[in-house]
Write a structure and sequence with these properties.
- This protein is α+β, with helices and mostly antiparallel strands and 256 residues long.
- It has one domain.
- Helices cover 16% and strands 27% of the residues.
- The strands form 4 sheets. A 7-stranded antiparallel β-sheet has the order 9-8-7-6-13-4-15, with helices on one face. Strands 3-14-5-10-11-12 form a 6-stranded antiparallel β-sheet, with no helix packed on it.
- The N terminus is likely disordered.
Length: 256
């Protein structure tokens, strides 16, 4: 567990007005080193897996839908967790479908600007965060978690290869979960930490869960904000107005 221990760094500019707005090089290096080490930890465990699953009991369903020629995912309506529905046009007036805003930019001060976060009481939200994105093997879907004041707590990351929660979880993605993710087609998934249990759902079905204990439970029970980091192109999420409050730089089309 020590090799996954997070070195939690307060977000620059979120509470200290004297900050010059530049991320320190050693913090950036730690972020990159952390991600590389976590990927290497599971690489040997999943080396034998092929890019696409073909030997599971659900392989017939996957093979029927997983076609190299199928690329027009915009014509698909996804029914997802907690009865959320993603339409085909996220730009419609009045739509609650927001494009994910990548916080790793100079404008968002490399995930350090509280105005690039969405406020949500995640530990008490049964719904969590519902996202529509392509789930790949090597590229991770990443969500940064913050406390009320905008200090970074850690990152949730997952792909067909592995699932990570900074300082607490590093494991191989269950076959049942990655079997739901069709190549080059967006998947509607949800992540939550309701009552101290990290869950990943697809179509309302719980396909991964892990109860947080001890220091991990204490740390992530303070999660009050989130932001997206390095998401695949054209990713979107459901903005629930009665649960979420967008930062000043968050709009339905992305970041300001």
């Amino acid at each position: 567990m020590d090799q996954y221990q997070d070195q939690v760094q307060p977000l620059k500019g979120s509470t200290d007005s004297s900050d010059d707005g530049e991320i320190e090089e050693e913090v950036l290096e730690e972020e990159v080193k952390e991600d590389v080490e976590l990927e290497e930890d599971v690489e040997d465990d999943v080396r034998e897996d092929s890019e696409e699953i073909s030997d599971d009991s659900g392989s017939d369903r996957i093979n029927e839908n997983d076609s190299e020629d199928r690329s027009d995912s915009e014509n698909i309506i996804f029914e997802g967790p907690e009865n959320l529905v993603f339409g085909t046009d996220s730009s419609d007036v009045g739509s609650n479908i927001f494009k994910t805003c990548d916080c790793w930019t100079p404008e968002c001060r490399y995930c350090s600007d509280i105005s690039c976060t969405v406020k949500q009481d995640l530990p008490n939200s049964e719904q969590g965060i519902a996202v529509r994105s392509i789930v790949k093997r090597k590229k991770y879907n990443s969500v940064v978690f913050y406390d009320e004041n905008g200090s970074r707590i850690g990152k949730f990351q997952w792909s067909k290869r592995g699932i990570f929660l900074t300082g607490c979880i590093a494991c191989v993605t269950p076959r049942a979960l990655k079997g739901k993710c069709i190549k080059n087609v967006q998947t509607l998934w949800a992540v939550s930490i309701y009552n101290g249990v990290l869950q990943i759902k697809i179509d309302g079905e719980i396909l991964y869960e892990n109860r947080l204990m001890g220091d991990c439970l204490e740390k992530y029970s303070k999660t009050k904000r989130f932001a997206f980091y390095g998401m695949p192109e054209e990713s979107s999420y459901s903005f629930v107005a009665d649960q979420m409050e967008a930062g000043e730089k968050i709009f339905s089309t992305g970041c300001a």
